[in-house]
Amino acid sequence: MALQKELSLIEDTISHAQRFYNGAVRLLNTRIDTFPDLLIARLFHFNYRQYFQLDIDV
């Protein structure tokens, strides 16, 4: 029972981290296309990032 609780906590933590990361990526990708941020992004060669996807086959 303790193992199930621990696994559930770990899954929740990973899910939270994934949502946080994907939110940051969405913000970055949006700002790269938005004036005046796009000027700085082009100057420093910022690139689009991929969203994190975890595929688990059960």
List the helices and strands and how they pair.
Elements lengths: L1 H31 L4 H7 L15
Account of the 3D structure:
With 58 residues, this protein is mainly alpha-helical. It has one domain. The radius of gyration is 17 Å and the shape is rod-shaped.
| Strand proportion | under 5%
> How many helical elements?
2
State the assembly state of the protein chains: single chain
Radius of gyration: 17 Å
Low-confidence stretches: none
Indicate how many domains the architecture comprises.
Answer: 1
User: If you average the pLDDT, what whole number results?
Assistant: 92
Helical residues, percent? 55-70%
| SS-based class | mainly alpha
- Distance between the ends: 20 Å
For the secondary structure, the number of strands is 0
Main beta-sheet annotation? none
Overall 3D shape: rod-shaped
What's the helix-strand series? HH
Task: Describe this protein with a few key phrases.
66% helix, 2 helices, 58 residues, mainly alpha
In short:
With 58 residues, the chain is mainly alpha-helical.
